[in-house]
Amino acid sequence: MDQELPPIRSTGIGSWPGTDMAEAIKIAFAECPDFPYLPELPARGPYAEVIGRGTAFLDGLSADLQAAGWRLTDTSSREHRLAISTLRSDLDLLEELAQGYSGPVKIAVAGPWTLAAHIERPRGDRVVADSGARRDLGQSLTEGVASMIAELRRRLPDIEFTLQIDEPSLPAVLAGSLATASGFSRHPAVDVAEVSGSLRDVLAHIRAAGAAAVVVHCCAPAAPISLLQEAGAEGIYLDLGEVAGDAWDTVGSCLEDGVQIGLGALPTDQLLLTADQVARRVLQPVRDLGLEPSIAAHLVLTPACGLASARPELAIGALRTIHRAAAIVTEQLAD
User: Residue 183 pLDDT more than 90?
Assistant: First the structure.
């Protein structure tokens, strides 16, 4: 007899084509009915891209967009004010369009280490180069995100908010491969204990503010899966194409410990793959782990990063393909 399994969920990872947030939210709720999310629309401008949007969450810190990128400043520039007002508008739209909905919703924000890797200090060079600046930025982000979660819980009490922390630059921070502002050298690797401790504090603070779960998304090669688990992430989202070798053993260990594993199973350069093909990409390595079906059911399927550059019809098709693939994987695991 087939084993009764809870359905494996599907969701989007974040970025989405176009500039119409109301339409994007409607699509996210329609195509990801079991795990909708607040999309990000970088086509609106630098203030809506991952780093610019991240500055909108900072509490007590100001920023400016300069030729070299975002920099901390004494007063907020027009671009920073745009980032803040756009985020507020997006959250208002979410409140309006999610009326009557009860269940999980995912919201993404750039993580402290990715922001530190890309934002410069007032006098130049990246925040990641200075331990005090790293600490201040992390605390500012944590307070801002926690305030946002607490506010959303008041405005939409029937929704369980999952906070997705995007950390694509985390492997480079740990490896010491981030270029300095001059480009002639590299920033030293940040100690693992500092990175882990910082993330642990961020996750705990956000969870205490009312987040139902906090997951960390790292689509880069060599994602530090064990570090993220030890920091207390309730979910770890990865690009399926970047998981190889011993990393799969670590993924299996996380699943056994009840950690949700998100897999970016549909590459953005292969959006015409069928749901059956995507399901096979997931099932082969998962079956190789030899996990009980009830454990493997902690998976969440997503497209890979980068849907913002896709044609809208292909982006919608990607969410539909992933949703069907999740149903196929659930059915096959139960057999």
Answer: no
HEC-encoded secondary structure of 48-107: HCHHHHHHCCCCCCEEEEECCEEEEECCCCHHHHHHHHHHHHHHHHHHHHCCCCCEEEEE
Task: Report whether pLDDT(1) > 50.
Answer: no
* Amino acid letter, residue 31: E
Place of tokens 């990641």: 128
Residue 5 — φ and ψ, nearest 5°? -115, 145
**Residue 49, token pair as written in the block:** 């891209």
Tokens of 152: 């959303």
Can you say whether the dihedral through the CA atoms of 139, 57, 64, 16 is positive or negative?
Answer: positive
Q: Please report, to the nearest 10 degrees, the dihedral formed by the alpha carbons of residues 276, 282, 284, 288 taken in order.
A: -160
Read off the amino acid at residue 173.
Answer: V
User: Could you tell me the CA-to-CA distances from 26 to 32, 112, 311 in Å, in that order?
Assistant: 10, 29, 17
> How far, in Å, CA of 171 to CA of 156, rounded?
35
Which residues does 88 contact at the CB level (< 8 Å), separation at least 6?
Answer: none
CA 82 to each of CA 52, 77, 140, 228: distance values in angstroms, whole numbers, following the listed order: 9, 9, 19, 32
State if pTM tops 0.90: yes
DSSP conformational letter for 333: H
Q: What is the DSSP code string of 286-321?
A: HHHTT--HHHHTTEEEEEPS-GGGS-HHHHHHHHHH
pLDDT per position as a tens digit, 72-116: 999 999 999 999 999 999 999 999 999 999 999 999 999 999 999
Q: Decide: helix, strand or coil at residue 253.
A: helix
DSSP letters along 254-286, please? HHHTT-EEEEEEE-TT-TT--HHHHHHHHHHHH
